[in-house]
């Protein structure tokens, strides 16, 4: 099964896309399957936290529209740090409009973010729109990818079993740009060539006051099938984000090793 296979083996599968290979390789090089959600409110904090967690992460996840004072220079610094510390940048934009609109939105994001998240609510044509943006530039081909949201971590969300099934189908139709699915359980993703990204991870809390549900790093990797785990406040709001990132990184990676070795 997917969860028992190593990232190395999975990266070598014929159906694994170039961008997905790149992510698998990066996790192995850094021994990190930690994605940090830098949910902060100013550009200064964004750069400060990124500098601290950069050495420990495979993906930096942003909500750039929630951050004040972000300029071209901020995004350039972010890209420089991504190069220096070897991580990818993912804008958690959760795009959900018609193909044409999504294309306009993605034209901006594609310049600085390696990865982007999308809701499957509008269907396959939206993915086609993104694919067209990527295909327009030779340098982007194989260097840009999409995570599709198949499940949400929050209480009371409206996603049904049928929606999940149809989302998986779409992900298989656009395999050259879809690197994986954002989901909460190990039985959503059928193919070992796709990556399971799972948010809602915290060592200390089991929920927040607005419906977020947390699991600890062991549960999320061993029982829930996550390949890469997303940690936000557990790291960003710690007194020492670098130390917290290191702790999460080691716990998550050791659990991945445990998962694939027996
Ligand atoms: N996020 C979730 N749950 C989801 C999806 C995305 O929490 O189902 I899709 C995002 C929201 C936030 C991060 O940016 O992941 C989790 O942050 P905390 O660890 O601070 O809850």
From TrEMBL:
Residues holding substrate: 39, 61, 153, 212, 232-233
KW Glycosyltransferase (keyword) present: yes
Keyword Iron: no
Gene Ontology MF, one: orotate phosphoribosyltransferase activity
Biological processes, Gene Ontology terms: 'de novo' pyrimidine nucleobase biosynthetic process; 'de novo' UMP biosynthetic process
Residues covered by the Orotidine 5'-phosphate decarboxylase domain: 33-248
EC number of this enzyme: 2.4.2.10, 4.1.1.23
Pathway of action: Pyrimidine metabolism; UMP biosynthesis via de novo pathway; UMP from orotate: step 2/2; Pyrimidine metabolism; UMP biosynthesis via de novo pathway; UMP from orotate: step 1/2
Keywords assigned: Decarboxylase, Glycosyltransferase, Lyase, Multifunctional enzyme, Pyrimidine biosynthesis, Transferase
Active site location: 92 (for ompdecase activity), 94 (for ompdecase activity), 97 (for ompdecase activity)
Assigned protein family: In the C-terminal section; belongs to the OMP decarboxylase family. In the N-terminal section; belongs to the purine/pyrimidine phosphoribosyltransferase family.
Protein name as annotated: Uridine 5'-monophosphate synthase
Lineage, top ranks: Eukaryota, Metazoa, Ecdysozoa, Arthropoda, Hexapoda
């Amino acid at each position: 099964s997917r969860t028992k296979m190593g990232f190395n083996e999975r990266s070598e599968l014929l159906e694994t896309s170039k961008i997905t290979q790149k992510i698998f390789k990066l996790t192995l090089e850094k021994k990190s399957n930690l994605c940090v959600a830098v949910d902060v409110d100013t550009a200064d904090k964004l750069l400060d936290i990124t500098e601290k967690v950069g050495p420990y992460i495979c993906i930096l996840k942003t909500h750039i529209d929630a951050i004040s004072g972000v300029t071209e220079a901020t995004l350039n610094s972010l890209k420089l740090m991504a190069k220096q510390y070897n991580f990818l940048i993912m804008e958690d934009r959760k795009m959900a409009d018609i193909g044409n609109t999504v294309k306009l939105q993605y034209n901006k994001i594609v310049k600085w973010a390696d990865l982007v998240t999308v809701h499957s609510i509008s269907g396959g044509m939206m993915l086609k729109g993104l694919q067209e943006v990527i295909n327009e530039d030779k340098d982007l081909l194989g260097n840009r990818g999409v995570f599709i949201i198949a499940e949400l971590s929050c209480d009371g969300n409206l996603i049904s079993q049928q929606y999940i099934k149809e989302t998986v189908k779409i992900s298989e139709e656009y395999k050259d740009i879809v690197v994986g699915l954002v989901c909460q359980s190990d039985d959503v993703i059928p193919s070992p060539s796709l990556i399971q990204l799972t948010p809602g991870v915290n060592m200390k809390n089991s929920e927040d006051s607005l419906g977020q549900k947390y699991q600890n790093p062991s549960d999320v990797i061993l029982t829930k099938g996550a390949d890469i785990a997303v940690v936000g406040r557990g790291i960003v709001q710690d007194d020492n984000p670098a130390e917290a990132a290191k702790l999460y990184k080691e716990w998550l990676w050791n659990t991945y090793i445990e998962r694939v070795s027996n």
